[in-house]
Amino acid sequence: MALFAVSDREEAxxxxxxxxxxxxxxxxxxPSEEWAPLFFRIxxxxxVDTYRRQAVRRAVFGLxxxxxxxxxxxxxxxxxxxTLVPEAQLASQQSLQQLENAIRAxxxxxxxxxxxxxxxxxxxxxxxxxxxxxxxxxxxxxSRARQKLRELLTDCVE
Length: 158
Hints:
Layout: H1 2-6, H2 9-27, H3 35-61, H4 86-105, H5 108-119, H6 124-131, H7 135-152, H8 154-157
């Protein structure tokens, strides 16, 4: 969820680590059944905080960007050696990239509800607790996210 939200692996890992530390610091006395919803609630708040910080950074430092083309990519983002079946790997990478782009195109709340329900396996009530909204809102966001993903990914399926 953090990676989809911020699109930066290192920052996403920092967000997850910070969320885990906050969970342990503040809620270690709680029963273990409550940890998963609490963790994702903390994670969601950290993601929103990160968006706010990024907006401030863009406002303050936006004029001083060094490389707008992204040529300063770290070495780990550079393509690795070819695999045994390059065509299959390319098709798989393209499909995964299209899915990631489609999820990133969703509004933040829809994105989070979709990821919590589909990838994390939370039910409607747990998702509502994590996101901080009603179960009806979760159902609405989830439905809209699925519809938007269907629209964005029709070319992949056909």
